[in-house]
Amino acid sequence: MSEQLPFLPYGKQAVSEDDVAAVCAVLKSDYLTTGPEVPRFEGALCSAIGAAHSVAVSNGTAALHAACFAAEIGPGDEVLVPAITFVASANCVRYLGGEPIFVDVHPDSGLIDLDDAQRKITSKTKAVIPVHLNGRPADLDALSAIAQKHGLTVIEDAAHALGAKYRDSRIGDCTYSDMAIFSFHPVKHITTAEGGSISTGSDVLATRLRQFRDHGIERRFEHMRLESPPSWYYEQHTLGFNYRLSAIQCVLGTSQLTRLSGFIERRNQIAAFYDRAFEGVSYVTPAERAPATDLHAYHLYPLLIDYDGAGTTREGVVAGLRERRIGTQVHYIPVPAQPYYSARGWKASDFPGAAAYYARALSIPMYPTLSDDDVKRVVEAVSDVLSSGT
Ligand SMILES: *Cc1c(COP(=O)(O)O)cnc(C)c1O
What we know:
This protein is an alpha/beta fold. The chain contains 13 helices and 14 strands. The structure holds pyridoxal-5'-phosphate. Pyridoxal-5'-phosphate binds next to helix 3 and helix 4.
């Protein structure tokens, strides 16, 4: 019987007929990569988030790599990274030979603990990468004050937070930071299949980011070293990569962006329903909400579950929900606990906030095309699994 129910994953893209038509049309145009669709998508992103510059790249990890390059991270530099995040937030520092310095998080929100961040600042600290975990903005005002005091570059990992607001500022407008990165992976708020971007208010950083995604090449005559360059000329100024996003992907992104505010509204409706419903369920607390002054983008909806109290285990709950055709995921295993980082001397036990968050977290389905009935089904399944212990 339950086999008949549709499977509800923890996250899912929403591709419309208009998106499909836009992609089909660009396939018949002159440009499949570069061409006018790339700046068009970048312009649409700038309008959506209020940024001066947006640079589209091939994925969110490439966006982090480009941002660290633009911030001139190199060997010997330290960059503060919260212990609870996707591994890419730390790996980008390693790509350039720098060291991610892990910072503990608040146990009920998973957001960076700024007291611990301050304790970990040394003369080598060059930047900080706050993560707006689940779509809830980190405390950017307090963070930027610390960064200013110590001369740190702020790179927001906003992969979870497209469409979020911190007080009056849209995440990505870089009011409190030097750069912000986004991911357009299918589980994120809008998708280009694979894709990402970096936004910045700085012309200098924007130039470095654009060169980095295109082999380090400069094609604008006014920026070349050669005087009066010929029409076919280009110059390589730095060592970059091919991190370009194709026109096909940009068209999909531009089409998806037109529906961003509706997506965020629906995600907030679903979150409000879950918040109310789980008040009555024992051993379950939703991850801490955003203050009323902010807009949460609800990329994820994690429950913090007392598995012992409920007489079960996380694996038991995951299996019980899977039987009821409900997908879940754990976001995230503390990054210092990953074998790659423990081999570099990090110990998960040094991050009690991250350990407490990780021990309880379980992300349940959250995406805009979930129906009201789907949402009720999720709540009933969670209550059912926790009360039966299976
Ligand atoms: C998704 C994600 C990334 C990386 O994005 P990709 O597009 O998958 O490379 C980076 N940081 C966080 C927090 C993410 O969730």
